[in-house]
Amino acid sequence: MPLHRPRHWLMGLLLGGQLAVAQADEAAQRYGCEQPIRLALYQNLVFYREGQGIDPDMVVELQRRSGCRFDISLLPRSEIWARLQAGSLDMSTSGIATSERRRFAFFVPYLYLRNKLILPASLALQVESLDAFERLTGARLGVIRGYRHGPYLDNGVRVLRGEGRVLEFSDDTARFAALREGEVSALIGHDLNLSGSLPAEQQLDYRVVDVVPGPAVPHGLILARKHFSPAQAAAWLRLVEAMRLDGSLAGIMHAHAPPALADELLNSGYHYELAKQGRQP
């Protein structure tokens, strides 16, 4: 009888190995990662800076939960969109959906960003709305090339661009330099853009003004339709929602933002709007 035990043990080991391989293959098919997923990050003071930030932490957690491998690169935002559309890139992070972009990508939101106006303190009392900024004679707005900011702000950018009052920059460093030099009167951005760009004493010279009347703008994973099926996109959505439910998303946001801003990033903005009106959701 003892002579047969090693044979039974070996058979169990072989069956266990086959089961593990089958489960790995099933997961790869579920998430569309039979091959490493080509994923691009981009430099942004809210999401990614010098190898750290919300987005790289998201990628680490997604890799752990899905079992997928990622081939990660760092690219300009405008190039990311072009590659996703062409099919030479599979996935990116913190993207805003538009009707045009939905034609070539699925979107899985994981945070909600309230873009605002960052402007000199001397102008803050004059600018309580986007319309007020538009009325400032000669005031110009600085944006990053290839960025979208949500329907409300993007409509304002189109109006100002038609008047020749929008300047585009490659990154935050360039546009904050333009703001300090007076080349532009305001930037579209977030509190974290300001705190990440200027020393604390210089931040006192500027204000962040919330001029958007509606809810925050969802930002999420971008999955190229040329690589992922609708069912696979739904699997990524379920995975991200599991992170939301078990508190992992909150942990990531709180690791990279002060408590109030971290809570804002987790809030779609509907509760935020009701709170501003003194109402409960």
Task: Describe the structure concisely for a colleague.
The protein has 281 residues and is α/β, with parallel strands linked by helices.
Walkthrough of the structure:
- The protein is of the alpha/beta class.
- It folds into two domains: 35-112 and 217-276, 3-Layer(aba) Sandwich (D-Maltodextrin-Binding Protein, domain 2), CATH 3.40.190.10; 116-209, 3-Layer(aba) Sandwich (D-Maltodextrin-Binding Protein, domain 2).
- 47% of the residues lie in helices and 19% in strands.
- The protein is built from 13 helices and ten strands.
- It has helices at residues 5-31, 54-66, 77-86, 121-124, 130-134, 151-162, 172-181, 191-197, 200-203, 230-245, 248-256, 259-265, 270-276; strands spanning 37-41, 70-74, 91-95, 105-113, 116-120, 141-144, 166-169, 186-189, 206-209, 217-224.
- The strands form two sheets. It has a five-stranded mixed sheet with strand order 2-1-3-10-4, with helices on both faces. It has a five-stranded mixed sheet with strand order 7-6-8-5-9.
- Helix 2 links the parallel strand 1 (37-41) and strand 2 (70-74).
- Helix 11 crosses helix 12.
- The longest helix has 27 residues, at 5-31.
- The chain is globular.
- It starts with a helix and ends in a 5-residue tail after the last helix.
- Residues 1-5, 15-23 and 271-276 have low confidence and may be disordered.
- Belongs to the bacterial solute-binding protein 3 family.
- Residues 50-224 form the Solute-binding protein family 3/N-terminal domain.
